[in-house]
């Protein structure tokens, strides 16, 4: 069989033609987020990383709310109600700018807002979700503790009944948005099992000291949550869930965004390496003309392409209601691991310039060291998949 149809030109930045698999609406969402990042964040993010702070984070949150990306895959309550794939594409564009920016959006929408949207009362939803979707209120998610990471069932934070009230005591650690949050979703052990609580951060006994001296996710607010006799009314508890099902369902939402977001960091570094290799001259010609550099660029492009195809496939499954948690683990494990390798390889192409904040590579590389750990380590996702494949649990 032959055809006379003219082939489309080869796009070095989309070698497999993945853009052809996206709808017009999906392309429009990606383009809108990319424009906002280019205008509002890209000129400043290296400075924020160097300084260890985001300038005017509340103003930025409101701009993200106006764009519609906060809780964008949730229905009602001021949320955009867009598809999982559209949300994934937004995460890719956000993390192409910086993992800290995607973390702000992911924690807001997929952890704090999702917890209230999925497990909260109607009163809790009405009180918090519209203002969070608009970026007028910032949320955080308190699960990880100083000595409790991958084993949340061993958390030490406790909530006890005192009359009709709840009283919370404990510590949470490595909490994105904690120091700037207006509301915290905090998970605690109770006599009934693990329960979630919606905690206004101006409640007496609640504090959130910021964690300093980070060398990763510096353009992101990371905090400890301290709960010393935090007294809450009876209706502060999330009524629709008891047990680890609650927090784990939220983590699964966040992991899905990371599957996409990691590819954004990878794309940024890949494109930086492609541009640099075409401009940097050694031994009389651009280094893009040397075989070893070409091998690096081809390998990076190959892994990036496979990662985006995997993310898109999982997005389609999520939109169809057929995405399993094990498949999210597959995506998170592969895409973050490969994105980190792409960033490291890009650094070698840039040589000494690869460690300069004049280029995005070392910033993405450092950020991905955290992304590799949060929302499930390589080890935990490996064991999740190992159990799914073999039928044998190896966690203990």
TrEMBL record:
InterPro entries tied to this protein: Acyl-CoA_Oxase/DH_mid-dom (IPR006091), Acyl-CoA_Oxase/DH_mid-dom_sf (IPR046373), AcylCo_DH-like_C (IPR036250), AcylCo_DH/oxidase_C (IPR009075), AcylCoA_DH/ox_N (IPR013786), AcylCoA_DH/ox_N_sf (IPR037069), AcylCoA_DH/oxidase_NM_dom_sf (IPR009100), Glutaryl-CoA_DH_mitochondrial (IPR052033)
Top-level taxon in the UniProt lineage: Bacteria
GO process annotations (BP): fatty acid beta-oxidation using acyl-CoA dehydrogenase; fatty-acyl-CoA biosynthetic process
Record domain Acyl-CoA dehydrogenase/oxidase N-terminal: where: 24-136
Cofactor(s) required for function per UniProt: FAD
Family under the similarity heading: Belongs to the acyl-CoA dehydrogenase family.
Name of protein: Glutaryl-CoA dehydrogenase
Lineage of the species this protein comes from: Bacteria, Bacillati, Actinomycetota, Actinomycetes, Pseudonocardiales
């Amino acid at each position: 069989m032959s055809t006379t149809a003219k082939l489309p030109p080869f796009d070095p930045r989309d070698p497999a033609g993945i853009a052809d698999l996206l709808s017009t609406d999906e392309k429009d969402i990606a383009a809108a987020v990319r424009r906002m990042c280019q205008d509002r964040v890209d000129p400043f993010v290296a400075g924020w990383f160097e300084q260890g702070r985001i300038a005017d984070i509340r103003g930025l949150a409101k701009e993200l709310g106006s764009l519609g990306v906060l809780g964008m895959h949730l229905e009602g309550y001021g949320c955009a109600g867009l598809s999982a794939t559209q949300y994934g594409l937004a995460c890719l564009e956000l993390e192409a700018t910086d993992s800290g920016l995607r973390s702000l959006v992911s924690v807001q929408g997929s952890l704090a807002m999702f917890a209230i949207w999925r497990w909260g009362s109607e009163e809790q939803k009405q009180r918090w979700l519209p203002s969070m979707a608009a970026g007028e209120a910032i949320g955080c998610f308190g699960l990880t503790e100083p000595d409790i990471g991958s084993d949340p069932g061993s958390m030490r934070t406790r909530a006890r009944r005192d009359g009709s009230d709840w009283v919370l005591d404990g510590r949470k650690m490595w909490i994105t948005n904690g120091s700037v949050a207006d509301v915290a979703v905090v998970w605690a052990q109770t006599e009934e099992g693990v329960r979630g609580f919606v905690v206004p951060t101006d409640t007496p006994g609640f504090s959130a000291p910021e964690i300093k001296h980070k060398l990763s996710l510096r353009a992101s607010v990371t905090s400890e949550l301290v709960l010393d006799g935090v007294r809450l009314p009876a209706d502060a508890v999330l009524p629709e869930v008891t047990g680890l099902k609650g927090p784990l369902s939220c983590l699964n939402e966040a992991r899905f965004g990371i599957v996409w977001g990691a590819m954004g960091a990878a794309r940024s570094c890949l494109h930086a390496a492609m541009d640099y290799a075409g401009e940097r001259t050694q031994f009389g010609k651009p280094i893009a003309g040397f075989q070893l550099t070409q091998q690096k660029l081809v390998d990076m492009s190959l892994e990036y392409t496979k990662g985006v195809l995997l993310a898109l496939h999982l997005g389609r499954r999520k939109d169809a209601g057929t995405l399993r948690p094990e498949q999210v683990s597959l995506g998170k494990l592969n895409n973050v691991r490969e994105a980190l390798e792409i960033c490291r390889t890009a650094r070698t192409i840039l040589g000494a310039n690869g460690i300069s904040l004049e280029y995005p590579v070392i910033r993405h590389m450092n950020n991905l060291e955290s992304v590799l750990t949060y929302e499930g380590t390589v080890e935990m996702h490996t064991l999740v998949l190992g159990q799914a494949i073999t039928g044998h649990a190896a966690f203990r």
